[in-house]
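Bug report (template v2)

What were you trying to do?
Predict the complex of my protein with pyridoxine-5'-phosphate.

What happened?
Run completed; filing so the output is reviewed.

Input:
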Amino acid sequence: MKRLGVNIDHVATLRNARGEWHPNPINAALYVVKCGADSVTIHLREDRRHIKDKDAKSICDLKKVLVNLEVSMNKDIISNALKMKPDYICIVPENRREITTEGGLNIRKNFVKLKTIIFKFKKAKIRTSLFINPSLNDIKLAKLLKVDCIEIHTGKLSNKIKANINHTNELNRIIKSSKLANSFGIEVHAGHGLDYKTTKLLSKIKEIEEYNIGHFIIGESIFYGFSKVIKNFKKLLK
Ligand code: PXP
């Protein structure tokens, strides 16, 4: 069975819209796991636009929930993350002006910086992942960095499918990248822009073991509830 991580950042977005306390991301973390999610993902952004430090710390302290903390390469964020001790880390690129994470890391440009950061997380025994584009060169660099996992940015594929544009080349890039990473012993994850249709398509790639999905699950749950939506995804990932 492939694993499903639910990104609950947008529960915090909704809470922050009122500047009060409801809906509470800590309750969301507990609830999505009760509904069948294998882990929760939270992104502690440099501008703290959704998840705040206090949320991240409290969620990392929950004993019943496996937490995947997304972090940029920012020095303060890395040092906060090391103190919070999440189960998993995913290093992502971050640009203040973006609405969401628009692409994978530039591994070549940041190779030395990433090497130092990965070393710190591995020393703290935190499973570490790199958010990357489906590129064979980047997979080879990820191998040199001795990272545990990669998460393939599926945003381009999702956008093409949603816009009804031919997606064969992008899908092939994801397939080849997944196979290469797997042959290097790197665990393969996928995330960004996924919905039922794209997840079903990607679920056929046996090398992809984990899917991290946020916006669609939160939006769909407004109508059908977390329980039903998470069950639907788990069925697709069987
Ligand atoms: N995985 C990573 C590394 C991300 O940065 C994001 C977006 O924050 C997601 C998964 C979830 O993307 P979406 O909200 O589009 O499902």
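What did the reviewer find?
Residues 3-236 form a domain with the TIM Barrel fold (CATH 3.20.20.70). The pocket of pyridoxine-5'-phosphate is lined by residues 7, 9, 43, 70, 90, 92, 100-101, 131, 151, 191-194, 212-216 (CB under 6 Å).
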